[in-house]
Amino acid sequence: MTIELNFGVILSEILLLLVGCFIFLFDRFFKNKGYAFWLTLLSLLIASGVLLISPFGGFTLSYQNDFFSIVFKFIVLFGAFLVVILSKNYLTYHSQLNYGEYYGFLILSLIGAFLMLSSMDLITMYLSMELMSFPVYLLIALNFAQQRKSLEGSFKYFLAGAMGSVFLLLGMGLVYSATGSLFFMQIAQSLFGKAELTYVLLGFLFILAGFSVKMSFVPFHMWAPDAYESAPLPITSFIASIIKFVVIACLIKLLMVAFIPLKAKIGQILIPVVLLTILIGNVLAIKQDHLIRMLAFSSIAHAGYAGLGLITGDLIGYSFTIFYLWVYLIMTIGMFSIAVFLANYQKDLLYIPKLSGLSQISPGLSFLTLIFMFALAGIPPTAGFMGKFYLFIGLVKSGYIWVAILAVLFSVIGAYPYLRVLKFIYMEKTEETFSYRWEPGVWFPVSITAFLTLLIGIYPKPWVDMVYRTLYLYLTFLFYPY
Amino acid sequence: MGLGIDLNSLIFGYLAFAMVVSSVLAVFSKNPVHTVLLVLVMVVHQAFLLLTLGSEFLMAVQLIVYAGAVLVLFLFVVYLINLRKETKHSIFVKRFCLCSLVFLLFLGFMGVNLYLIYGAKKFEQAVLPFNPLEKDNLWWIAHYLFNYYLLPFEIIGVILLVAVLGAVFLVRKVKTTEEA
Fold first, then answer.
1. How many domains in chain A?
2. How far is B75 from chain A (nearest CA, A)?
3. What is the ipTM of this complex?
């Protein structure tokens, strides 16, 4: 086995790291903090260009550039691009948060996400997960001077994350003692032809518990509402969409590459967890009056929907899961852009009853809210419906009909909180009015995400095919290289 | 062996028991100085556990870094910011009894599960990817750290950078709402 140090494959991470360090080092010399925004945007664009031309291959044994990592890195970059644009708008209205470090921490978190998507051993995966979450803990606490609550949310997330890390490390230790390696390929090799798997299964369950904290699966979901509510809104959309996407994609990678014999069993174990996640997320979302809290509980429920694809334990189910997460990334960033718009002009508009009569004040905004709420609830001509449809069809096809029926019933409960928002917007009257202005920082992400939501809702096939082919080609190249 | 207990498991049992007891006491101790000292006891026992596993280099590192540097630093912090007394709170969790009951039930459930899975058979012997007796301890650590785990080693550097930056960033001087 040779150790390659091929710096060409890891170039995008190095680039982002350099930009992050530049921001931290030279932030004092810039009076106008807009430079950090443009620098970040530019570096994201250059990073995507570098990704396009970067060769496949490994940087030591623990990092690999392949179909999986490159395609999903593009999705992450797309989300981060929108989040950064949104941040610029949010920070102009909340100038007490306007530091260059905001973008610096965002970039550092993005490096963690990139490394996690490319990681080929458990240690790298764990460490890059920490690298992804540490800056986010700090960004949640950014506003602590004005809002004491943000410290609470950040600390809760931090403690939950620390507990998850303990589980993860314990599981990694068990897997190491059973298989003698931490590299995915070697774990797969040693599990192949092994009759007794209970020891490895126990280890993997601990790893799953560690991941569940970040994915906010049910026994580990309690940090989510507080952290979401107290964070700056663009950061909330970052946690809800990108971090969830990366962590679940890595879980799928673990199942597909390293723990192949455990796939079916893990699916069975996940059934009650996933159903409970959907149920609890949806039921608790009903009572929330704060828009962001409602979206936080809905994000718990959506993580549950995405988990439905893991139950069947085959490539089709996994590709549906990732497709759903991609759809969810679009919907969440769109919905949070609208929330940023509302919070910019009147902070209490984030309370759902205060939204009443919004359709008189701003019909365009109300229509966009309608699109995203329909998408989140899963109502036909939107992407949210197609994502759920594929997941349920996948379950029915592989014989888990009762799981599909229960999930459909729970998602009917889940439609209520979204439709309630629409009821306030469209069916109530109001005397109040406020002036607003459409700014590129909001309309750009909103229009792109709304367009994609409708496009994927009407013509989903190429997107599902893209995800499926990515996973298929990845596995083919991994196990049969030539 | 005559008693049916070999010396290895006796020593391991003592070290593990001492570690668990000292860490539990550290959590429940009211005095922060006592907490730090109990953690010190735990760390020393851990170091000797590493010695029984044959990794003398890690034992030395554990003693020098944790017992020697980190905990002394903790002790300094405790003295410097005058944290002798614990701040008292009313009970944080409502229905504390119910919660602890549920926790105990959960523990019992886990225990029964583990017993059902592993009670019948002996634990598998751990698989090692190399023969540790071939070279000395330090050689193996260096070999694995700088060949196979080079990237994680670098990532740890970035994580520490984030931690330092974050600590500095969070203690910056800002106008709170009360002042403004």
1. 1
2. 23
3. 0.89
